[in-house]
Amino acid sequence: MQAKVSVRRFNPDEEQPKPYDQQYDIEVEEHFTVLDALIKVREEVDGSLALRCSCRAAICGSCAMRVNGHAVLACKARVSQHLSDDGEVRVEPAGNQPVIKDLVVDLEPFWNKVRAVEPYLQPSLPEPEAEYLAPNEVMLHLVDVMGCIMCGACVSDCTVLEVDPNFLGPAALAKAYRFVADTRDEEDSKRLGLYNGYGGIWDCTRCGECVAACPKGVAPMDRIMALREKAIESGTPPGGYDGAAYGYRHAEAFEEIVSHKGRLEETMLVVKTLGMFNLPKMLGMLPVGLNAMFHRKMPSPFAPTVPGVNQIRRLAARIKMNKDGAAR
Q1: Residue-by-residue DSSP string for 228-264
Q2: Residue 225 pLDDT more than 90?
Q3: How many other β-carbons are positioned within 10 Å of the β-carbon of residue 315?
Q4: Neighbour count for residue 17 (Cβ, 10 Å)
Q5: What secondary structure letter does DSSP report for 33?
Q6: Facing residues of 90 across strands?
Q7: Mean per-residue pLDDT for 270-277?
Q8: DSSP 44-80
Q9: Of 225, 260, 286, whose CA–CA distance to 270 is shortest?
Q10: DSSP for 148-197?
Q11: How many alpha carbons fall within 13 Å on the CB side of residue 120?
């Protein structure tokens, strides 16, 4: 099978280095992965092509890169499944990380963010003779998130990191959840306070790109949402970061409105989130409201309750009672 492998390259040793595309026309077998194709290019066509790989079995995470615009493990992505109609597959370095050369990125910023969430167990119990033990159900719950191989695919496709490099990112926050959810760790309050700040759990936009990119089913966005829920339930103060304060109020207002009316009133959600008397913020939303009205997309603030709303209210009350019971 003939394939056109288009690679985004970058050579820092050039006089005026800048990214450029280079295409390689090679013969590939049906079972070839993108990594197989790149290695063939490097070994048979162009020895200057730089890439990072190791296990070639989707375990080490070294070969995370973008194929046709989305982050994947190159050793797990078959060429035949990514070829366009004209037989081309496009390969780029992982996103949101500085490129060292060609497909090799600098992972130092990635590891700095992981270190920032204090990714180690912090028990306060007396030191045991053998080891700290956790209940079996807790460890079963953590199996998926502990399956993270730190490949950085989620970071590559994170839409928040594209506009704000200060964001801790999905990989680091998923790692943070792993320790908050571990009953052997006694520093939940300190951790949640740390993650509440600027660049933390409230800056995720829930776009879902990290979930789609993760090759191991860690679902980082779901872990970030779980951290938000734990922060609210534990009463962790939002601190001085507006994003956290608005996040708290948004979650509480969402639950209050749906529980009461059986439907979401988007207009009231904005008012309750920002605060009715927060005039600077409310005035800041005026262009958005006018634009929605102009396009006839302004939701009515006086929408009626849905039929059977009493059943929804009973369900909401039961959920709250169960959550309060679990918290005790």
Answers
A1: HHHHHHTT---TT-HHHHHHHHHHHHHHHHHHHHSS-
A2: yes
A3: 12
A4: 12
A5: B
A6: 6
A7: 89
A8: II-TT-----S-SSSSS-TTEEEETTEEEETTTSBGG
A9: 286
A10: -----HHHHT-HHHHH-TTS--HHHHHHHHHHHS-TT---HHHHHHHHTS
A11: 3
Q: What is the pLDDT of residues 70-100, one digit of tens each?
A: 999 999 999 999 999 999 999 999 999 999 9
Distances (CA, A) of 159 to 47, 80, 162, 210, 226: 33, 28, 5, 9, 20
The torsion angles phi and psi of 119, rounded to 5 degrees, stand at -85, 60
The CA–CA distances, whole Å, from 106 to 57, 118, 156, 215 equal: 22, 21, 12, 20
Q: Is 307 left (phi over 0), alpha (psi -120 to 50) or beta?
A: beta
Q: How far is CA 236 from the centre of its chain?
A: 22
DSSP states of 100-140: EETTEE--HHHHHHHHHT--S----SPPPSS-----HHHHH
Average pLDDT over residues 167-188: 96
Residue 149 structure tokens: 């191989």
**CA 249 from centroid of its chain's CA atoms:** 22
The position carrying tokens 């070969």 is 63
Structure token digits, residue 239: 């601190």
Find how far residue 38's CA is from the centre of its chain.
Answer: 28
- Of 182, 113, 175, 186, nearest to 149 by C-alpha is 175
The Cα 247–Cα 196 span in angstroms is 10
Q: Helix, strand, or coil here: 21?
A: strand
- The pTM of this model reads 0.87
Could you read off the pLDDT of 120-177 as tens digits, one per residue?
A: 999 987 888 888 888 999 999 999 999 999 999 999 999 999 999 999 999 999 999 9
Euclidean distance between CA atoms 179 and 35, whole angstroms: 33
Tokens linked to 111 = 């590891």
